[in-house]
Amino acid sequence: MSREQQAVARARKAFETGRSRPLEYRILQLKNLQRLFVERQKEISDAVKKDLNKSEVGTQLYETLGLEGEIGLAIRKLKEWAAPRPVEKNLLTLSDTVYIQPEPLGVVLIIGAWNYPWAVTIQPLIGAIAAGNAAVVKPSEVCVHTAKVMEDLLPLYIDMELYPVVTGGVPETQELLRQRFDHIFYTGNSMVGKVIMEAAAKHLTPVTLELGGKSPCYIDKNCDISIACRRITWGKYTNCGQTCIAPDYILCEPGIQDRVIEEVKKSIKDFYTDSPKTCPDYGRIINQRHFKRIMALLEDSTVAAGGDNDESHCFIAPTVLRDVKPEAKVMQEEIFGPLLPILPINGLDEAIKFINKGEKPLALYVFSADEKVINRMRDETSSGGFLANDCLVHFSVSSLPFGGVGNSGMGCYHGKFSFDQLSHLRGCLIKKLKMEGVNDMRYPPHTPKKLGWARFFILKTLDLGWLGRMLLLGLLAVVAAVVLQKYLR
Q1: Which of 219, 237, 282, 456 has the fewest Cβ atoms within 10 Å of its own Cβ atom?
Q2: Distance between CA 91 and CA 455 in Å, rounded?
């Protein structure tokens, strides 16, 4: 057996012992995971610094702080999430116990990404643990140092049989995908997402795909352009633009383009000084392959600000492009880097048409003081998430589902959504071996009179309070034994 097969087999065997099912054990594992981020912050930050040049504060702010919050939420709410969920009944099932019972799926494969290597790998793991699953964790090999730290630390804190870490590159991932899982959770690009989905289809394994795309940003000419550009600058250049929900490009009217450029330049200077290369809060491109890919996107566009670069250090300065054409290279793929194209368009109608011509993005941003503009952009487009007058922050809201639509992904997670995504929501109905007279309407021989009663009991909906339900239940008990048997025969 390969190393990957062994890891999956051990996880399956551990899951089948049933030890991941008790809520107490899930909470213990979550508390141990939480302890990891308290006790091992330095090792985590040092590795992320080597991989992406993030500062220690930046790593906590964008990687581990949110994870600590998610773990705390899961610990507090787990009993509530895992409890049976009563549902509405029809008259025919009024005396029955009807509910949804969340249950573990089994063994989950989590394939993480390199841009936020802890956040997007461990957040699905939190959901998998909370839901009572086993999980095989595959960190991105692109973040070499972080993958090694994850491989070393996770087994020290959480059950190493239930939650093994498998490192490696494409061959190791391909070997994992040949194994049978009960769910696959992948974060990355749409090209690999199709490969994941194809592999999963062989076993009819459900998938969650957290992908990306070109997330548009429309600036209304009547908004506070200074504040809008400050927030866009933060959203775009955080992590050197390597964020799946970063504003990919700006749409605005030609008359405000120069103002937008100037305001973005001011914010770049405020955030990253006159020398972003020496600023501890400005990151680096992950590797030279991505550096070359991003630089190639500049070829047929006009640089309005920035453009400085150093291949030996994988550095590309925060860059703004002006008067960009829809056919420009930078508009043909997700940028995933610190380039901000500005496309002049003639108002909201044209912006909506332009957005709808492309694939559905992971996020869509609009900046406007006019509620009508915001509502039109929301109602006449489709995207994974929608934000007005800010960027990125919806990722931090655990009560919102985070995920894509169409080409930007499928499925969602965060908070209770993670728990539900990695659970089977099992429909349950518990009936007593009593009141058999009620069932006569469904037994042969079938007659018009029985059909009439069936229509009444199945289709009739009553809005009853607690007292009303009790009275009706008592009435049904009497009617079932007397009236139904008399009139249904």
Answers
A1: 456
A2: 10
Computed over every residue of the chain, the mean pLDDT equals: 94
Name the phi and psi angles at 125, rounded to 5.
-65, -40
Cβ neighbour number for residue 330 with a 10 Å cutoff: 24
CA–CA distance, 6 with 44 (Å, rounded to integer): 27
Q: How does residue 469 score in pLDDT terms, banded at 50, 70 and 90?
A: low
Q: Tokens 């700006």 correspond to what residue?
A: 250
User: Where in the sequence numbering do the catalytic residues fall?
Assistant: 210, 244
pLDDT at 77 exceeding the cut of 70: yes
The reported pTM is 0.93
CA distance 104 to 485: 43
Give which of 285, 174, 299 is closest to 240, Cα–Cα.
285
| Token representation of residue 179 | 């194994």
470-486, pLDDT tens digit by residue?
A: 555 666 665 555 545 55
Q: What is the pLDDT of residues 99-115, one digit of tens each?
A: 999 999 999 999 999 99
Contact 163, 135 (CB under 8 A): yes
Amino acid at 100: I
Per-residue model confidence as pLDDT tens digits over 200-213: 999 999 999 999 99
